[in-house]
Amino acid sequence: MSELSGKSKRSIMGSILPKAKPPKEDPTDTMSFLDHLEELRWRIIKGVAGILIGIIVAFFFSDFLIKEFILGPARADFFMYEFISRIAPFEAVDLDLISRRLPGQFFTYWGTLLVMGVILGSPLLIYQLWAFIEPALESSEKKKTALNAMFINFFFLLGIAFGYLILVPFAVQFFAQFVIDPVITNEFDINAYFSSVAMWTFACGIIFQVPVISWFLSKVGLLDPDIMRKYRRHALIGSLLVGALLTPPDPLSQVLVAIPLVFLYQFSILLSRIANRRRKKEMEAAFTGES
After folding, report:
1. What pTM, to 2 d.p., does this model score?
2. Where are the beta strands (DSSP E) in the chain?
C-alpha cells in the first residue's frame, strides 16, 4: 500500500508540476573556436564585398555624388538652405574651396567613393556582422536576424540623413560666415572640408544607434527602463554636450542636434520597457513550459 501510495503521489505530482521545454538546439554549440573564426572570416569577406559593390556603384555615379552630394552644402543654392530659410532667419553663402596639396583632389575623389561605398554597402555589412554576433545573445532564425539587421540599418541611415541634411548645412555655413576681421577671407581646403562633412555625417549615424543599444541591452537583462528614467536629466545634459561637440558654437545648431537626441533617449526608454516585458514573458514561459 505504501509503495502504491508513493507511486500515486509521484504520478499526481508529475501531473501537477509543469514540464520544462528542452532548449532549442543551437548549431553554434557544436562549433569549435577555429570554426567560429572561419565563420567570422567569411562574414567579414561578404560584408567587405558589399562595400566594394557600393564603391563600384558610386564610381559610375561619381560626377553626381561629388557635385551634388559632397559639394552641395558648399553652394548657396543647396536645397536644404532654402528649406531652412523658411523656418528660421538664414542666409547661405558660397564656400571658396581650394586644394593646397598636390594630391588633394585625388584623395577627395577616392574618399568620396569610399564613403559612399560604406553607406551603400552598410546594410549587407551590418547584416553579416549581426548574423555572427546574435547567436551568442540568443538562438534565432534567419528571418529574425534579418529583421534585427534592418532595425540597426534603419537608425544608422536615419542618423546619416540627419547629419547630412541638418547638421552639415548649419556647420558649413557657420564656419563659412565666421569672420574675425573683414581683412581675413575664408578659403577652405578641399580635404578639410571633405573630412569634416564625413565626420559629422558618420557621427550622427553612430549616435542614432542609442535605441538599438537600449533594445538589445534590455533583452539580455543589462538595462532597465527605470534606470533610464532615473538618469533622464543626465541624458538631457549629455545631449546638449554632444550637440556642443558636434556642432559649431552657436545655440541654434546645438539645440537642433540635442532635440533629436532627447527624443531618441525617450524612445529608447519605451523600447527598453517593451524588451523587458518580452524577456519576462520568455522567462515565465521557460519555467512554466507554456508557449
Report:
1. 0.77
2. 97-98, 188-189
